[in-house]
């Protein structure tokens, strides 16, 4: 049985555009588990607002680097880690772009490969470049001011970083886009598409 840890933000957690959370069966980690089969365990460790390495002054406990080691030990040994973070890095108050987000994911990769006291083997790593941000609406419009253009560079920087670090790479923008309802979060169809794309990538690894 393979243990697969999905480490992400609200796109992994299952945020419904403009509020709420999808029931479990509509979230992409659950769909991925169904596709892989019940003898594997896919863990949804998404958290709304999580960044790669940044401390958010408005949301507590969102620094992804701070919690990854605990997650790897809690659920370990982990066979595959799927990393999809960076969307929240583009919030205006962080003042960084897709390049810095990719460097943040690189720190997560380094953390996941550090020796541990349990002698767990290093997991296989899957890096997902987040989807391009569309026109954010409502409360997110101010928070993600300037993020639309920045997000278009996710693919390039994440792919370069993933190849350099010998990770499996998936460009989410190549298979889906956020819901037009809020421009950031995924609709049910996008959750389905992401799960199927990941299944095709990792089915030979489990």
From TrEMBL:
Pfam families: Lipase_GDSL_2
SUPFAM superfamilies: SGNH hydrolase
InterPro entries registered for this protein in UniProt: Ester_Hydrolysis_Enzymes, SGNH_hydro, SGNH_hydro_sf
Domain SGNH hydrolase-type esterase positions: 6-191
CDD domains for the chain: SGNH_arylesterase_like
Domain of life: Bacteria
PANTHER family (alphabetical): SGNH HYDROLASE-TYPE ESTERASE DOMAIN-CONTAINING PROTEIN, THIOESTERASE 1/PROTEASE 1/LYSOPHOSPHOLIPASE L1
Record protein name field: Arylesterase
Species in which this protein is naturally found: Marinomonas pontica
Source organism phylogeny: Bacteria, Pseudomonadati, Pseudomonadota, Gammaproteobacteria, Oceanospirillales
């Amino acid at each position: 049985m393979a243990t697969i840890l999905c480490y992400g933000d609200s796109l992994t957690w299952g945020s419904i555009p403009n509020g709420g959370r999808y029931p479990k069966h509509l979230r992409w980690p659950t769909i991925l588990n169904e596709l892989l089969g019940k003898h594997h365990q896919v863990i949804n460790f998404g958290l709304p607002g999580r960044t790669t390495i940044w401390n958010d002054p408005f949301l507590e406990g969102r620094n992804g680097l701070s919690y990854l080691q605990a997650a790897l030990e809690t659920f370990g040994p982990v066979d595959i880690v799927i990393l999809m973070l960076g969307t929240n890095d583009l919030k205006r108050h962080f003042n960084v772009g897709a390049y810095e987000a990719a460097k943040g994911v690189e720190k997560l990769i380094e953390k996941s490969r550090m020796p541990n006291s349990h002698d767990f083997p290093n997991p296989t790593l899957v890096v997902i470049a987040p989807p391009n941000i569309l026109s954010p609406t409502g409360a997110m419009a101010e928070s993600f001011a300037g993020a639309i253009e920045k997000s278009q560079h996710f693919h390039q920087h994440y792919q370069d970083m993933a190849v350099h670090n010998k990770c499996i790479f998936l460009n989410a923008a190549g298979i889906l886009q956020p819901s037009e309802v809020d421009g950031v979060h995924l609709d049910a169809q996008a959750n389905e598409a992401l799960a199927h794309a990941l299944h095709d990538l990792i089915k030979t690894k489990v």
